[in-house]
Amino acid sequence: MASIQDVAQLAQVSTATASRALSRPDMVASTTRERVLSAARELGYQPNVIARSLRQGETRTIGVIVTDILNPFHAQLAKGIQDAADRHGYTAFLFNSDEDPAKERRAIDTLRGHLPQGLIIVPTSGARENLQALSGVPIVELDRMSGTPGVTTVTADNSGGATAATRHLISLGHTRIGMIVGQQDISTATQRHDAYRAALKAAGLTYDPALVLPGNHREDDGHRAALRLLTLPEHRRPTALFIGNNEMTVGAVLAARALNLRIPEDLSIVGFDDSRWAQTMNPPLTVVAQPTYDLGTCATEQLIAQLRHPRDGPPQHHQLSTTLIVRHSTSPPHTPAPAHSH
Amino acid sequence: MASIQDVAQLAQVSTATASRALSRPDMVASTTRERVLSAARELGYQPNVIARSLRQGETRTIGVIVTDILNPFHAQLAKGIQDAADRHGYTAFLFNSDEDPAKERRAIDTLRGHLPQGLIIVPTSGARENLQALSGVPIVELDRMSGTPGVTTVTADNSGGATAATRHLISLGHTRIGMIVGQQDISTATQRHDAYRAALKAAGLTYDPALVLPGNHREDDGHRAALRLLTLPEHRRPTALFIGNNEMTVGAVLAARALNLRIPEDLSIVGFDDSRWAQTMNPPLTVVAQPTYDLGTCATEQLIAQLRHPRDGPPQHHQLSTTLIVRHSTSPPHTPAPAHSH
DNA sequence: CATCTCAATGTAATCGTTTGCAACCGGGTT
DNA sequence: AACCCGGTTGCAAACGATTACATTGAGATG
Question: How far is B39 from chain A (nearest CA, A)?
């Protein structure tokens, strides 16, 4: 691999001038500049980022840690981040924590050695502790908030989305609305849960804890939880489910199918986060859509702005709006044969 | 960030001993070693990978370029690669070419500056040219083969899969089997196409070029192609479709639905590559499944083996087997009302 | 014509590590 | 007592870029 020494030698100048010709064109005479540039071209010279980073103390690299790259939601976040970073001349280093604090810790340590100039992270429940190892590096938390002090956050309007979802079900006439909620220590889960509860209350419906089950964000958690909710005795079984994340929604839909419940006739379902799957499943799923790709780009823009002009002020919190997309998995509840006239 | 100098100073040794204590424990007296290690621990020392790479000329980094991280197939490849790389102490640098040779070129250039020790790539049609910039770096082509000389390849058994898919449809009694095939210059597309053709021939069926349409691997290509095939006059319309990749299959299914064709009664469909979507769509899709994650890990193992023991022999070609999974999107053709008695 | 100025270039230090080589030391051998 | 040996350690040179500072030379100024 050609080094700048080779370029300098071929162009008959010192490495200093060669370097300047390439990165500070106006500091060198035009004739020499040409000589250097053509030498570089001839040798296929590509600057050694490693050496440059070492000298300059800046790597033009940002770290990215998501919890599950196989989840299309995260894949899309990652793509938004990478595209935006690329536009600004930064390289994004992508890691996976698999929702496991220990893996997150390892990712952070590996990252640290690479001297990232900033970090965008979808935090696990251990993030608050793990992130202490990275003091001095600007951090943007994406999608969730771990409560780490001083970090900028970029999230979706979870409350608004959950409120809209719950109101939608209420307006259709549902009174027994179940919810499958994510981990208690993940901000998105609690926000959605709180909003659901508030919306019920605002409509004068009672909040029934028996209709709310926790899950660990994965498909089988959704499956298990849905199975329990949907096998309650007929008069207590929820006629609608609001499910707190995309993966669990898949599990819940499959559980409903396994029980031979028709959607939406026997059970209305609203999921959180739109996806290819939600659009093409049968029937198409009513969901709260998030601006996923934009969440990624927004986080990146924020981070890079911060790298350019280091802030002192309090950390910022950006919230992108969500949209309820009504498809065909929701309808008025099917009133059971023996009319229940109050 | 604490450097090795700080550690050395705190432990009252030279940087040389500090370095050795950390990376060549047996070269230093146990008491000094302890002193250094505890100093390192106390300072939270994390070696600067950049400086180390510069000195050693090896970065313990491998580049990864896939064509579309949003495609679950590629996301899974990426995960397989990252997990395996991690196990061997390598860091994977992930890039996206978006199926665009120019972007692939840029990714390679960026990568080059980071001095990756090897590259795993799902090549675009321009790869053969683009890869010349990386001479000297071991390369493994994954999923597809660009024809670049000297590179190791790790692919799925496309021929076997396509053969099984076609035979399955034939054995059900279909005689007009259409195919939507990927780009001509991508090896997976041509292999699947050739096998399909051969299987038809072996069964004594004629290959009808009008039933074979090309697509660019994306959903809307599949949609468009399927629309054209399925609106052929009744007696020429295919009763079954074999579709050459996962994204296009989505488009084709949606096209069939738009035309109110029932699957499998009016149209049998076999897709290539399994997915969550294929399993949960209605009806569940018959597919040729690929060992996606394993393709990723296999590629990584191959690459790392090569880094350890540089080869001179001819490049190796590994092929992982595929499996036909029969679900409910395929059935015998529905004989039209006016019996077509031979 | 001496001096000053400024643009263009070169010299060499620097970033944090690793590592070849030399130095040192204590103990065994001759 | 001189020598050697092997285990520890330190000194200093790399790696490839950038950049503070020194140098050069040509043209402008007095």
Answer: 17
**How many other CB atoms are found less than 10 A from the CB of residue B132?**
11
CB contact under 8 A, B250 and A276: yes
* A337 within a domain of the structure (yes/no): no
First to last CA, chain B: 82
Q: Please give the tally of structural domains in chain A.
A: 3
The answer, yes or no, to whether residue B2 has pLDDT greater than 70, is yes
Which nucleotide's C1' is closest to A27 (Cα)? C8
Same domain? For B98 and B194 the reply is no
Q: Domain span at residue B228?
A: 158-290
By the 8 A CB rule, do B189 and B212 touch?
no
Residues A163 and A212: their CA atoms lie apart, in Å, by: 16
Strand C interface, A 57-76, C-beta < 7 A: 57
> Are residues A26 and A43 located together in one domain of the fold?
yes
Same domain membership, residue A286 and residue A175: yes
In a domain, A182, yes or no: yes
User: What is d(CA B258, CA A10) in angstroms, rounded to the nearest whole number?
Assistant: 64
Q: Tell whether A93 and A139 lie within a shared domain.
A: yes
For B223 and C2, how far is CA from C1' in angstroms? Answer: 85
SS3 label, residue B141: strand
Name the residue closest to the C1' of D12 by its CA.
B16
Instruction: Give, as one character, the DSSP assignment of residue A211.
Output: G
User: Which segments of chain A have a pLDDT < 70?
Assistant: 335-342
Distance A28 CA to C5 C1' (A): 18
For position B282, which CATH number holds?
3.40.50.2300
Tens-place pLDDT, residues B165-176: 999 999 999 999
Query: What's the Å distance between residue B7 CA and nucleotide C25 C1'?
Result: 25
A95 with A25, same domain?
no
Instruction: Quick: pLDDT tens for A179-193.
Output: 999 999 999 999 999
